[in-house]
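Q: what sequence does this backbone want?
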C-alpha cells in the first residue's frame, strides 16, 4: 500500500506576500521635456511657459506621470515645478525621474501605509516573480517592514525559496 501524499506547504502556516497584489492601478506616463527645448538642449523660459500653457493637460487625467529629460540638458528646478502646477489637477501622482523612480515612490507610499500585523509570528515568503514592474526597492522596503514581526522571511516560491531572515525570539 502506497503512503498518502501530504502537501506540507498547504498545511503549514506559511504565508505568501505578493507585491503585485499592491500594485497601484493607473496608467504610467513618461513626460519627456526634450521636445520642448531648443534643439533638445536649451530651455527658453518664454517659449517653455507658452508651450506649457497651450498644452492639452487633460491627456494625463488619472495618470501617474514621470517628468524627465532624456537629453543631457541642464533643466532648472522651476521647469519641473511649473509643469507640476498644470499636472496636479489631473494626474494621480507626479515625480521627477524615470518609470523606476515613479514605481519606487508609488510602492513607498503603499508600503508605508501597510498594516503588517497579520504577519506577526508567521513564516512569510515574498513572491519573487512578477508580471508587473515591481522595483527592487519595493522588496527592500517590504522586508524591512516585515522583519520586526515575521517569524521568518523567505524569497521565491514555496517549492524553491531562499531563506533570508529568521527571528531569534
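A:
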Amino acid at each position: 500500500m502506497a503512503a498518502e501524499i501530504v502537501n506540507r506547504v498547504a498545511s503549514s502556516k506559511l504565508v505568501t506576500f505578493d507585491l503585485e497584489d499592491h500594485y497601484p492601478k493607473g496608467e504610467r506616463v513618461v513626460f519627456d521635456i526634450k521636445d520642448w527645448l531648443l534643439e533638445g538642449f536649451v530651455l527658453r523660459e518664454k517659449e517653455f511657459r507658452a508651450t506649457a500653457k497651450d498644452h492639452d493637460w487633460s491627456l494625463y487625467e488619472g495618470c501617474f506621470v514621470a517628468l524627465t529629460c532624456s537629453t543631457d540638458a541642464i533643466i532648472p528646478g522651476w521647469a519641473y515645478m511649473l509643469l507640476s502646477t498644470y499636472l496636479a489637477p489631473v494626474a494621480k501622482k507626479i515625480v521627477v525621474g524615470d518609470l523606476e523612480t515613479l514605481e519606487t515612490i508609488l510602492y513607498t507610499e503603499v508600503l508605508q501605509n501597510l498594516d503588517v500585523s497579520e504577519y506577526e509570528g508567521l513564516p512569510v515568503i515574498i513572491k519573487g516573480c512578477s508580471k508587473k514592474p515591481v522595483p527592487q526597492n519595493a522588496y527592500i522596503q517590504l522586508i524591512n517592514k516585515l522583519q520586526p514581526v515575521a517569524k521568518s522571511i523567505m524569497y521565491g516560491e514555496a517549492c524553491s525559496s531562499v531563506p533570508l531572515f529568521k527571528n531569534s525570539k
